[in-house]
Amino acid sequence: MTERTKGASIKDVAEYAGVSPKTVSRVHNGERWVREEVREKVLAAIKALNYRPNAAARSLSGSRSYLLGLVLDNPSSHYAGDVQLGALKRARLRGCHLVVEPVDIKAASWTTELTASITALRLDGVLLTPPLCDNAEVLKVLDDLDIPYVRISPDRDPDRSPYVHIDERAAAHEMTTYLLDRGHTDIGFIRGQATHSSARLRFEGFRDALAERGLAPREAWIVDGNFQFPSGQDAARTLLSGEARPTAIFAANDAMAFGAIVAASKQGLSVPGDLSVVGFDDAPAAQIYSPGLTTIRQPVIEMGAMAVDLLLTPPGDEEARGGHCLAHGLVERDSVAPLANP
Question: 88 vs 195, which has greater pLDDT?
Fold first, then answer.
């Protein structure tokens, strides 16, 4: 034991306690993201191994690289672009640089490549966007590397890390209520990519609002998309091809809403005269599209900026490092008309 404890590392402590190196780091820094029984086990291991952290060990409060990583699965999306913009501006303001690391989880070697990139760049911290923020393998890579991270819109394990989000379920509920108040009870819904928690939360908000009016979603009018424009077109064609069609379509994001408007136009339907369409996100095109899209404003740029602030918050400031819910807003434009004879 004397030989082993002489130069015990954080990995030695983690192995002794049966936890990850990240958990050891959290306990050592006094963070609250650890269950009490786990904390006691780690403290006992630290004492048993006489662990002393290397003064040169990297930590966010004593960073030497000033590099933050933004890890995402679709860097070309509007959502990812806005997260990047907000994070980039705030990182520069805080004296750091932002590095974008795309991850393709369909590739066989993605975990090896991600590990190699983070190690080579000596990142001081990582921002995670959906769906990667809930991916167990991604989180394990970061935990094993003892890299601090902040998640944007996670769906699980809220105590695992600092995070920022909006109440997507409440926002979708508000939008559905907006349509119901204008006489639309026959509403089609285009869901997003199944791996995104947003797809589920927005659908749940839609379903909640219908239930409050004694209604239920019509199965034939619930069509899956993938948050991309073409899937919105395809889904809308399906919704509008039946003998009975909805009077309104709620697309789970703006890109799919734009696709729905194009599909309606190709079928000779006018928006909002023959069909009302709403979206979610408030992409820049929403205000210049014709008609202007009624949508939910999700403050994605602000979420990216706050994620950087949370990542750079000293470990002792637990209140600032917790979960933060930003306000959304319903933006009313020209893509919805009241139903003439509800």
Answer: 88
| Strands, sheet with 276-278, edge to edge from the N-terminal-most edge strand | 222-224, 187-191, 248-251, 276-278
Beta carbons within 10 angstroms of residue 192's beta carbon: 26
Q: Which of 154, 109, 93, 110 is nearest to 128 (CA)?
A: 154
CB contact at 8 A, 43 and 30? no
- Tell me if 206 sits within 8 A of 249, measured CB to CB: no
CA separation for the pair 59, 271 (Å, rounded): 53
**Rounded Cα gap, residues 152 and 162, in angstroms:** 9
Question: Could you say which DSSP state residue 10 is in?
Answer: H
The residue ranges of DSSP E strands in 234-336, in sequence order, are 248-251, 276-278, 295-297, 323-325, 329-331
What would the pLDDT profile of 41-100 be if each residue is shown by its tens digit? 888 888 888 876 654 444 444 445 789 999 988 766 788 889 999 999 999 988 889 999
Read off the tokens for 265. Answer: 């136009």
